[in-house]
Amino acid sequence: ENISDFSLNTTDCTQVVVPEEVFFTVAAAGILENLLILIAVVRNKNLHLPMYFFICSLAISDMLGSLYKTLENIFIILCKMGYLTRHGDFEKKLDDAMDSMFILSLLGSIFSLLAIAADRYITIFYALRYHNIMTLRRASVILAVIWAFCAGSSIAIALFSYEAATVIPFTILFPLMMFFILCLYVHMFLLARSHAKKIASLPSSTVHHRTNTKGAITLTIFLGVFLCCWAPFVLHILLARFCPHNPYCACYMSIFHVNGTLIMCNAIINPMIFAFRSPELRSTFKKMFNCSR
Amino acid sequence: MSALRLVSNRTSQQALSNSDYTWDYEYYEYAPVSFEGLKAHKYSIVIGFWVGLAVFVFFMFFVLTLLTKTGAPHQDNAELSEKRFRMNSFVADFGRPLESERVFSHQMAEESQSLFHFCINEMDHMNKAKESQKGPNLESNTHFQEVPKSSGMFEEDLHCLTKFNIPNFVNTEQNSSLGEDDLLISEPPIILENKLVKQSSHRILD
């Protein structure tokens, strides 16, 4: 059955096409930005800390996501130019490999965010023992375990993506992790609030008391960006598995390219809200760019 | 652009047999979907999803804002001048902790200390990065001088709970962060078993 000649109903939802240039620009920007972060952390000895390792892990998973889209585009172009056949086992394996890369990127992002939240949590609640709890070696081990798990799951999901048994856990993992991260941050918030109250009640205290919305804004941005960039794709997978013939579902699935672009935007935004907040990293960048002039 | 359809054929393989694998796209068009007789708008899932997501994000923001409300009134100008005075007196009498800070620091709970120490560590890294060879008061003065330049940035500079804007640890007001540095420098007398704390405090001082 040749896919390309389906009949177009006038009320159909046609695929919303994102121009190739936009795709490539967004993907390239994401890859470059995250690569810069990796280089900066590697070059600056002061940044060899567990916190920055987790940020690097996030940068790697973002890079993988953008890389996936870039490679996909390149392969399409190669197909168009005739270097790759449209049918064939090799292409199928290639496609599976790329799908698993994409899922690896998603899982890596989720777990990296979780690791960053847990690291901050330990920093705050076990601050005196933080350096004993979170040594460099432990952080490396944690990252290795996370990435091994993500790699295994992504290969399994890519191979068995037709089973409902893989789609459902995948889509459940996503909100579950978000909820867990939210709980960690909310607990940190509550501590901050109790601190503020304690400080406010001290007789010699001369601090400002006001509603601090900055923390709420920061956390909302963290989680909101991740949700808005990945949830559309996750919903897409769910609908594709369970109601592909439904016209409403089909209309949602027609904006697949937009969802893909959102994921690449996430790769661009994540460094800004995690990595670039660190002054050490910013100063490393400045040095890098000043040296190159 | 019709020839350029992007990939991802995972679920399209469901309807096709294995030999029909293609790179062509149409993610789901293995059977024509009829759009006759739709009761609601055809993009209703899209609209519903995005509206739901926006509502959820706003709801989360409001809940978090409520959680961080401290609820006490403003104290403005008197406080600013007082802090400036304390700062000047600190610079003048380096090494002699100010009374109020000492009282305050002794009253702090361990939790507060934990926050401090995280901030101390961060400041420590900042110090190392600056590779300053100068004496302690100059060093701390450098910090204080920098704060006005990047008024809102000091808070973010600490990259710790400062983001949550705990008053007295982090604040967008430069003077409050000066107050925090006051506290950090008057810290060393606090007896803590943690060697790290002493080291970082000494590094700030030396």
Describe the protein's architecture and organization.
Chain B: Keywords: Cell membrane, Endoplasmic reticulum, Membrane, Transmembrane, Transmembrane helix. Chain A has 293 residues and is mainly α. In chain A, 78% of the residues lie in helices and 0% in strands. In chain A, helix 3 packs parallel to helix 6 (164-201). With 206 residues, chain B is mainly alpha-helical. Chain B is 57% helix and 0% strand. Chain B has nine helices and no strands. Chains A and B meet through helix 2, helix 3, helix 6, helix 7 and helix 8 of A and helix 1, helix 2, helix 3, helix 4 and helix 5 of B.
Strand content bin of chain A: under 5%
Q: Termini distance of chain A?
A: 57 Å
Biggest sheet statistics of chain A: none
Q: Helicity range of the residues of chain A?
A: over 70%
Mean pLDDT of chain B: 50
SSE order of chain B, one letter for each helix or strand: HHHHHHHHH
User: How many domains of chain A, as an integer?
Assistant: 1
Main sheet overview of chain B: none
By CATH reckoning, the class of chain A would read Mainly Alpha
Membrane topology (chain B): Single-pass membrane protein
Main location (chain B): membrane
GO molecular function, one term (chain B): type 3 melanocortin receptor binding
Pfam family, one (chain B): MRAP
Short overview:
The complex is a heterodimer of chains A (293) and B (206). By secondary structure, chain A is mainly α. Chain A is built from 10 helices and no strands.
Helices and strands, with pairings:
The complex is a heterodimer of chains A (293) and B (206).
Chain A: H1 20-43, H2 50-81, H3 89-125, H4 130-133, H5 136-159, H6 164-201, H7 213-242, H8 247-253, H9 256-273, H10 279-292
Helix pairs in contact in A: 1-2, 1-9, 1-10, 2-3, 2-5, 2-9, 3-5, 3-6, 6-7, 7-9
Chain B: H1 12-15, H2 44-68, H3 77-92, H4 99-107, H5 110-130, H6 136-149, H7 153-158, H8 174-185, H9 195-205
Helix pairs in contact in B: 3-8, 5-9, 6-8
